[in-house]
Design a protein that fits this description.
oxidoreductase, alpha/beta, globular, 12 helices, Thioredoxin-like_sf, FAD/NAD(P)-binding domain, 8-stranded mixed beta sheet, binds flavin-adenine dinucleotide
Length: 507
């Protein structure tokens, strides 16, 4: 083995959506990190395909939402069949109408496309991915952790102040850190999943066959590709499912769908997917942390797996950066405290949704099999950290909503999200008080309904959306964390207390 080759502040293990989001978060804050990925090249298998509204808000903050919206699709309708006969066609999934407070609908885009956007952003931010680098050992030594890394050129070591295992469901980091994973395998839930090319089907909709006898078959057109995601439930009485193959997928299609003139041409990815519902006991031991599938795995029903991992990284990134910059070490405890209950809720919710799909399928009720798969609970917009140590006072802990306003100086439209975009904290001063002086790292803006207001850092709430979204009536300060959650709401006169909260946690 070589001598110590590299030292860094944060070692990120795994360049899936979770690791890539964390890397972007650290890169834009100028934090030193090393991102290691076992595979030699990116995965091309579709897997997750729903980008939920809250993840689009993260993408907005990272400066990539336009690319996601340009490449993805919204409101893809579902065409339901009884074998070759079309029964109905309607938008049954992810019908999210944007509002001034929540500007993004759920977007359909496959995981490799989203990962590609994250990788491009990371490169723009100056970050690098070390492909073909597998972590096989971790050793805590006082204030650092030393990782053993296997590459094509041999064994190396990397010493880091913090290590984040974003290395997926079979996490090596989790095992090396001795963190237990608890939960169940849904042994009757097995699916054939793959990416195939199909001729003869319209790409304007998802095609869905449900029947009591055969179960569920779905063909979903993956935006920006010529591929379809193939999903077929495996009958519960099939003791050991057949290994996935193109020939098997064709046979399933012929038995359950058999639409004349439609055929599966070839396949890019074929898999057999067993559903586990498991959660890590802890998200942290010492200087080693877990995020994404390494910490929680669940059913894909509701499309929250990838999204939950991205939100983990978004929660963790600014905290690691603040800690490395001298913030109170207790800040890091809030990561598990805030995020583990979110994963617990997603596990329960996605299991319930899967049960509903399967019950509706066996009752030959194709409409219910789809409806309710996505709703306001799956958007991620309701996640809140009310009992966090970072939440102060009534009305705090929830997501900081967006609202369209007007820039008082330029007269141009400006959104509250425009003010929050970037690695800083944000202080919104609602009402008549002048914009207070605040330290760097905290950007302050006055939000007023006075149409004649002028001055820098002042926005006019032209249509009252901001006051409505924040339910603000008097002179009030709203302190917003870098990840877009409200840390405190206080009367304008309490500015010193608000600044004290910021300097404990923000610096
Ligand atoms: C078959 C399948 C179907 C799915 N369908 C859906 C769906 O429909 N909807 C949905 O929301 N979610 C779905 N998911 C889940 C979704 O893909 C995951 O939630 C998401 O990929 C989690 O991202 P992650 O970055 O945490 O982990 P991963 O995407 O698993 O990334 C982990 C990365 O770490 C790397 N790695 C692992 N070990 C090491 C090591 N020792 N050293 C270095 N690198 C390492 C891996 O190569 C991998 O690139 C599906 C998953 C699978 C497997």
């Amino acid at each position: 083995m070589n001598a110590i080759a590299t030292t860094t502040d944060v070692l990120i293990i795994g360049a899936g959506p979770t690791g890539l989001t964390l890397a972007c978060e650290l890169a834009r804050r100028g934090v030193g990190f090393r991102l290691l990925e076992r595979s030699a090249t990116p995965s091309t298998a579709s897997r997750a395909k729903t980008i939920q509204p809250r993840t689009l808000e993260v993408a907005d903050d990272l400066g990539i939402v336009d690319r996601v919206l340009a490449q993805g699709k919204v409101n893809i309708p579902t065409r339901r069949y009884d074998h070759a006969r079309v029964i109905s066609e309607a938008v049954e999934l992810a019908d999210g109408t944007p509002t001034p407070e929540a500007p993004y609908p759920p977007v359909w885009l496959s995981q490799p496309k989203f990962e590609r956007i994250l990788r491009d952003r990371l490169a723009e931010l100056g970050g690098t991915i070390h492909w073909g680098s597998e972590v096989t050992g971790l050793q805590h030594d006082g204030d650092t952790v030393t990782a053993t890394v296997e590459t094509a050129t041999g064994s190396h070591t990397v010493r880091a102040r913090y290590v984040v295992g974003a290395d997926g469901g079979r996490s090596t980091v989790r095992a090396l850190a001795g963190i237990e994973l608890r939960g169940v395998s849904l042994t009757d839930q097995r699916w054939h999943l793959g990416d195939v090319r199909v001729t003869g089907l319209s790409r304007d909709c998802q095609h869905l066959w449900t029947s009591k006898e055969d179960g569920l078959l779905s063909l979903f057109p993956l935006p920006g590709t010529d591929l379809w995601q193939f999903q077929a439930s495996i009958p519960t009485d099939e003791a050991e499912p057949e290994a996935p193959s193109l020939e098997l997928f064709r046979r399933i299609f012929a038995a359950r769908a058999a639409v004349p003139g439609v055929g599966i041409q070839d396949a890019e990815w074929l898999s057999l997917y067993r559903i586990n519902v498991v959660l890590a006991d802890h998200y942290r031991t010492g200087r080693i942390l877990l995020a994404g599938d390494a910490a929680h795995i669940h059913s894909p029903a509701g499309g929250q797996g990838m999204n939950t991992g991205i939100q983990d990284a978004y929660n963790l990134g600014w905290k690691l950066a603040a800690l490395l910059d001298g913030a109170d070490p207790a800040l890091l405890d809030t990561y598990e405290h805030e995020r583990r209950p979110v994963a617990r809720a997603v596990l329960d919710d996605s299991t319930a949704r899967l049960g509903q799909v399967m019950r509706a399928t066996s009752a030959n009720d194709g409409t219910s099999a789809q409806r309710g798969l996505t709703d306001e609970h799956t958007t991620g917009l309701r996640v809140a950290y009310h009992d966090s140590a970072l939440t102060h006072g009534p009305g705090a802990g929830g997501r900081a909503p967006d609202a369209p306003c007007t820039d008082a100086d330029t007269g141009r439209p400006v959104r509250l999200f425009d003010l929050q975009r970037g690695p800083h904290w944000t202080l919104l001063s609602f009402g008549t008080a002048a914009v207070p002086q605040t330290p760097s790292g905290l950007r302050t803006f006055r939000v007023t309904t006075d149409p004649d207001a002028t001055g820098p850092a002042t926005v006019i709430d032209t249509d009252g959306h901001a006051h409505h979204a924040y339910q603000s009536t008097g002179d009030e300060l709203v302190l917003i964390r870098p990840d877009g959650y409200i840390a405190a709401r206080r009367p304008a006169a309490d500015l010193p207390a608000v600044l004290a909260l910021f300097s404990t946690n923000g610096l």
